[in-house]
Amino acid sequence: MQFGAHVSSAGGIDTAIDRIEAIGGDCVQVFTQSPRMWRPTNHKPEAIERFKSRRAEAQIGGVVCHALYLCNLGSADSAIYEKSIAAMSATVDAAVAIEADGVIFHVGSHLGAGLDEAFERVIEALRRILERCTGPTYLLMENSAGAGGTIGRSLEELARLSDGLGHPERLGLCLDSCHLYASGYDVTDLDAVDALVGRVDELIGVDRLRALHVNDSKTPLGSNRDRHANILEGELGEGLGAFLSHPSFQQLSAYLEVEGTGDGPNADELRKVRELHDRWAEKRR
Ligand SMILES: [Zn+2]
Ligand SMILES: [Zn+2]
C-alpha cells in the first residue's frame, strides 16, 4: 500500500511534489485551484512540466486531484449546477495535464429533497464531465459522511449513480475511512470490513476502487458528521488498522487528510499510519 497525503500547492502545482517528498509520502493529493473559489487557476506550462519531472525524480506513485468543495452536481439551482460542471471540468483538465490518476469528488447534496429528485441532474453532469477524462485520469466518487442531504452516504447510493451511467470505464471509487465510519460502517471491525468490500464488489466492482482516504474520526459511528481526526487520535483509534490491512486494498494508494499539528498531514502522521498498517497486516497472517 502506498501512503501519502493531501498537501498544499500554494506557489504552483509543482510545489506539491516538493511538499510530499519532504514528509516522506509515496503518493500525493492536491487541489488544482483554491477549493473555496470558483475561479480556476491558470497553470503555467513550466509548472506542469516541473510537476511531472519532479514526480518521476521523487518517485511519487499515485497522484490525485480533489475537486472543489463548492461543487454540487445535484443542485436544482441552474447557475450553481452549471458552475459546478464548469469547475469540475477545469479540475479534470488540470488533472489530465499533470497526468493524475484521478479526480476525487463529493457528488453534492440534494438538500433534503432526496436522491430521486436530484438523480437525473447528477447523471447528466457526470456524463458531461466523464467525456473529458483521458490518459491515466479517472473520475472517482467519494463516499460521504451523510451530513444533511449529501449524496453518496451509502454504497447503494453510489452504485445507483454508476448503474445510471451504465458503469462507464472511467468512473471509479474512493472510500474515506472517516466518512464510512460516520455514515455507519464500522471499519474497525474485521468482519464489517470484509462485508463492506464484498458489498463494493457486488454493487460496483472492487476493481473500481482506485484510491483510499485514510482519516480517523472525531465523531462516533453513525454520527453523520465529517470531522477528521489524526491517526490514532479519534474514535477509530487502533481499529483503523482493520480497514487498512484488508487484502483487497493492498495495491491502492492511501491519502491522509488530517490536520497534523495544524498545517495538515506531516511525517509523524505518515509514520503512525504505516506502523498501524504493518501491525494489522502481521495480525492477519
Ligand atoms: Zn476524504
Ligand atoms: Zn471528510
Summarize the structure in words.
- This protein has helices spanning 15-23, 45-57, 78-97, 115-130, 155-164, 177-182, 190-203, 240-244, 267-284, and strands at 2-6, 28-31, 63-66, 102-106, 138-142, 171-176, 209-214, 216-217, 228-229, 253-256.
- With 285 residues, the protein is α/β, with parallel strands linked by helices.
- The strands form two sheets. An eight-stranded parallel beta barrel has the order 1-2-3-4-5-6-7-10.
- The model has no long low-confidence stretch (mean pLDDT 97).
- The structure holds zinc ion (ZN) (2 copies).
- One zinc ion binds at residues 142, 176, 213, 257.
- CATH topology description: TIM Barrel
Q: What is the assigned CATH homologous superfamily?
A: Divalent-metal-dependent TIM barrel enzymes
How much helicity do the residues have?
25-40%
Tally of individual helices: 9
How much of the polypeptide forms β-strand, as a percent range? Answer: 15-25%
What general form does the structure show? globular
Sketch the major β-sheet: 8 strands, parallel, barrel
- Which cofactors or ions or other ligands sit in this model? zinc ion
Largest beta sheet: strand ordering: 1-2-3-4-5-6-7-10
Supply the CATH architecture: Alpha-Beta Barrel
| Classification by helices and strands | alpha/beta
* Distance from first to last alpha carbon: 16 Å
Q: What value does the average pLDDT take?
A: 97
The CATH class label is Alpha Beta
SSE series: EHEHEHEHEHEHHEEEHEH
